C-alpha cells in the first residue's frame, strides 16, 4: 500500500491510512505500507513540521492500493508526473483512493468520468464545475466504484479505510481494527448530518434541540411527527420542512439511525439478546429491527456482534 505525501499535506489525513494499514492491529492484517513523497527532500506539513520518507513518486505504480490524502489549498492541479503515475498504477490493477480533496486529483486523471464520487461537502460546487463528467454525490461518507474510491472530509477517511479493510480482510478483522482505534466499525448516515445548518437561538430552536435530546434519552418509547410537531406548536408540514433543513435527513431516517446506533452499542458492550436490544432501542418488533439492520450494515445483528467481538 502507498500513501502520497506532498508539500503542505495535512498530518491527520496522511496518518489515517498509515494508522489503519501501517500498524499490526490483528493477525492476518500486516500489509507493507509506503509513504511516497511527491517532491524530493523534506516535506513540510500544514502543521509546520516536516516529514522524511525513503519512497518516492516512482514507487507509486508498484503499489496495490494507493491513498491520496486530500490536497493543497488553494487548489492547484496536480503535476503531469503524478497523473502519469496514477494512470500507470490503475493500468496495473491498483485500487486508488481519493480521501477528502484527494477526489479532485483522482478526477483529474479522467478515471472518474461517468462514475460516482464524493468529496467534502464544502467543495462540492467547485468539484462539479471542474469535473462535470463525474457524477458527484456529496451525501455519502464514501463511494466505492470498485478500483476507485472517494471519501468525504477528514474523519470520513476513517470510514472509507475501514470499508477497504472489510473488502480486503473481512468484517471480523476490520472490526478488530475499528476496536483498536476506538472508531465505530460502521457509521450510519452521511455528510448531510454535518453540513452547516446552524440553529438560531430563538425559543423554537432551543425547544427543538431539547425535544430531540429527549427522544434520544427515550428511544424505547413511541415517537411520531405529529406528536413532536404539536409539542413545538408547529404544523406537521412546517415541522417536516424545518427538520430536514436543520438535520439534513427526514425525521424517520434520523430516528432509525439513532435507534440502530443504540442497538449497536448494546450488542457490542452488553450481553443483551438481539431481541432485547431491539426492544430497548424502540423497534416495535425484532423482524423490523433485523430488516433495518441488514439493510444498513449488510449483515444480521448476530453476525455483527460476532464480528465486532471477534468471537
UniProtKB/TrEMBL annotation:
Gene3D superfamilies with a match to the protein in the record: 3.40.50.880, Homeodomain-like
One annotated GO molecular function: sequence-specific DNA binding
One family name in Pfam for this protein: HTH_18
Record's keyword annotation contains Phosphoprotein: no
UniProt domain HTH araC/xylS-type: residue ranges: 209-307
Sorted UniProt keywords: DNA-binding, Transcription, Transcription regulation
CDD domains: GATase1_AraC_1
InterPro entries: Class_I_gatase-like, DJ-1/PfpI, Homeodomain-like_sf, HTH_AraC, HTH_AraC-typ_CS, INH-QAR
PANTHER family linked: ARAC-FAMILY TRANSCRIPTIONAL REGULATOR (PTHR43130), HTH-TYPE TRANSCRIPTIONAL REGULATOR RV1931C (PTHR43130:SF3)
Name of this chain's protein: Helix-turn-helix domain-containing protein
Amino acid at each position: 500500500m502507498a500513501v502520497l505525501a506532498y508539500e503542505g499535506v495535512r498530518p491527520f489525513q496522511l496518518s489515517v491510512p498509515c494508522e489503519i494499514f501501517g500498524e499490526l492491529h490483528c493477525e492476518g492484517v500486516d500489509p507493507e505500507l509506503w509513504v511516497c513523497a511527491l517532491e524530493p527532500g523534506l516535506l513540510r506539513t500544514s502543521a509546520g513540521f516536516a516529514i522524511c520518507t525513503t519512497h518516492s513518486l516512482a514507487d507509486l505504480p508498484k503499489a496495490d492500493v494507493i491513498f491520496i490524502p486530500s490536497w493543497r489549498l488553494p487548489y492547484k492541479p496536480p503535476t503531469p508526473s503524478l497523473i502519469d503515475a496514477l494512470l500507470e498504477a490503475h493500468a496495473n490493477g491498483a485500487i486508488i483512493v481519493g480521501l477528502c480533496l484527494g477526489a479532485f486529483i483522482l478526477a483529474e486523471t479522467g478515471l472518474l468520468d461517468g462514475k460516482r464520487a464524493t468529496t467534502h461537502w464544502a467543495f462540492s460546487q467547485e468539484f462539479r464545475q471542474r469535473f462535470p463528467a463525474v457524477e458527484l454525490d456529496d451525501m455519502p461518507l464514501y463511494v466505492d466504484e470498485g478500483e476507485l474510491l472517494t471519501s468525504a472530509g477528514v474523519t470520513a477517511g476513517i470510514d472509507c479505510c475501514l470499508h477497504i479493510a472489510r473488502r480486503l480482510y473481512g468484517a471480523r478483522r476490520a472490526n478488530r481494527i475499528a476496536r483498536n482505534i476506538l472508531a465505530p466499525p460502521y457509521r450510519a448516515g452521511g455528510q448531510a448530518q454535518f453540513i452547516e445548518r446552524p440553529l438560531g437561538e430563538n425559543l423554537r430552536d432551543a425547544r427543538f434541540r431539547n425535544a430531540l435530546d429527549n427522544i434520544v434519552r427515550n428511544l424505547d418509547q413511541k415517537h411520531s411527527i405529529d406528536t413532536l410537531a404539536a409539542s413545538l406548536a408547529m404544523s406537521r408540514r412546517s415541522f417536516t420542512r424545518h427538520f430536514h433543513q436543520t438535520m439534513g435527513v427526514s425525521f424517520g431516517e434520523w430516528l432509525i439511525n439513532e435507534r440502530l446506533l443504540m442497538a449497536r452499542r448494546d450488542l457490542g458492550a452488553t450481553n443483551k439478546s438481539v431481541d432485547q436490544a431491539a426492544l430497548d432501542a424502540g423497534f416495535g418488533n425484532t423482524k423490523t429491527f433485523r430488516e433495518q439492520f441488514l439493510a444498513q450494515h449488510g449483515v444480521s445483528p448476530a453476525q455483527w456482534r460476532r464480528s465486532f467481538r471477534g468471537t
